[in-house]
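Aim 2 progress update. The chain analyzed this quarter is reproduced below.
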Amino acid sequence: MTALKSMRFCLGIAAAIAFSPATAGAQTPPWANDQAAADADMANGQYQDAVALYERAIATAESSQPNAATNAVISKMLVNEGNCFLKLRRTQEATAAYEKAAPLSPTPARAYFNLCATYYNTGNTAAALPACDKAIQFDPNKADAYFIKGSLLIAESTSVNGKVQAPPGTVAVLNKYLELAPNGPHASDVRQMLDYVK
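Predicted structure tokens:
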């Protein structure tokens, strides 16, 4: 079989509003205005302006003796900032933002998945695989994480006596993608990879 075609994984850049509207009588946190402006700039493609506003909002939130709820907001801002860095082709800063975001969030699957996809796209396979495992750990229904992990494992396949030997677990990972997304955008590639290791 010919070498599998090079595949890049695209991260969706959606302006996720990280702070829920304040309830009646609750005090608006001091970073909320910068965060809202950053979210708007990100949605409008003004990524450099958004980064500057996220930096200021994150610094303000970090200086406020943050609790778990504040840390979750900081994590969401860091993920959005990382997405802006990707749009600006500043991948090292993007991965640093995702790495900082993950441990602050009670639901870090998004940060770990973005790390997984960014490392995969930049050829850092050694870092991509554990990031994919973390994304799957925190969201076992994230089909695209299985696709990237399967692609990474296929790349490590060897040939023994003319037979392809994929790393243990490769077939299960690829089949899991098809279970979760049988008609997904990568289903054809996954079936091709499964044929390759049969």
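Confidence is low (pLDDT under 50) at residues 1-6, 12-25. The chain has two domains: 30-106, 125-198. These observations will guide the mutagenesis experiments scheduled for the next reporting period.
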